[in-house]
Automatic annotation (TrEMBL):
<dbReference type="InterPro" id="IPR017937">
    <property type="entry name" value="Thioredoxin_CS"/>
</dbReference>
<keyword id="KW-0676">Redox-active center</keyword>
<protein>
    <recommendedName>
        <fullName>Thioredoxin</fullName>
    </recommendedName>
</protein>
<dbReference type="InterPro" id="IPR013766">
    <property type="entry name" value="Thioredoxin_domain"/>
</dbReference>
<dbReference type="InterPro" id="IPR036249">
    <property type="entry name" value="Thioredoxin-like_sf"/>
</dbReference>
<feature type="domain" description="Thioredoxin">
    <location>
        <begin position="1"/>
        <end position="106"/>
    </location>
</feature>
<comment type="similarity">
    <text>Belongs to the thioredoxin family.</text>
</comment>
<dbReference type="Pfam" id="PF00085">
    <property type="entry name" value="Thioredoxin"/>
</dbReference>
<feature type="site" description="Deprotonates C-terminal active site Cys">
    <location>
        <position position="28"/>
    </location>
</feature>
<feature type="active site" description="Nucleophile">
    <location>
        <position position="34"/>
    </location>
</feature>
<feature type="active site" description="Nucleophile">
    <location>
        <position position="37"/>
    </location>
</feature>
<keyword id="KW-1015">Disulfide bond</keyword>
<dbReference type="GO" id="GO:0015035">
    <property type="term" value="F:protein-disulfide reductase activity"/>
</dbReference>
<feature type="site" description="Contributes to redox potential value">
    <location>
        <position position="36"/>
    </location>
</feature>
<feature type="site" description="Contributes to redox potential value">
    <location>
        <position position="35"/>
    </location>
</feature>
<dbReference type="InterPro" id="IPR005746">
    <property type="entry name" value="Thioredoxin"/>
</dbReference>
<feature type="disulfide bond" description="Redox-active">
    <location>
        <begin position="34"/>
        <end position="37"/>
    </location>
</feature>
Length: 106
């Protein structure tokens, strides 16, 4: 089973970021109505199983627009890579090869 944590509010998002410490954090900014988001979701889930040293978070931009806006998200899906609360990189769109950036950051 995967280790994707679903974010339920902005406070939880910031708490997860703080608790991650030096671990890589990969955040999937998604929406239920977004077809490409739904298509790439299984790939994101597989990565969470493969890279157990990283933290994988999922944020529904419609429910938690404040969190998405605070991170500058303007398109879905958007995947943002962080370490120590610092943004390392960003991948937009449902291209699984874009998510291979995880390898370089773990």
């Amino acid at each position: 089973m995967g280790a994707v944590r679903v974010i339920n509010d902005d406070g939880q998002f910031h708490g997860e970021m703080s608790n991650a410490g030096t671990k890589l954090v990969v955040v999937d900014f998604t929406a239920t109505w977004c077809g490409p988001c739904q298509r790439i979701a299984p790939v994101f889930e597989q990565l969470s199983v493969k890279y157990l040293n990283a933290v994988f978070l999922k944020v529904d931009v419609d429910k938690y627009a404040e969190t998405a806006a605070g991170q500058g998200v303007s398109a879905m899906p958007t995947f943002i890579f962080y370490r120590n609360r610092t943004r390392l990189g960003l991948c937009q769109g449902a291209d699984p090869s874009g998510l291979t950036h995880v390898r370089g950051f773990v």
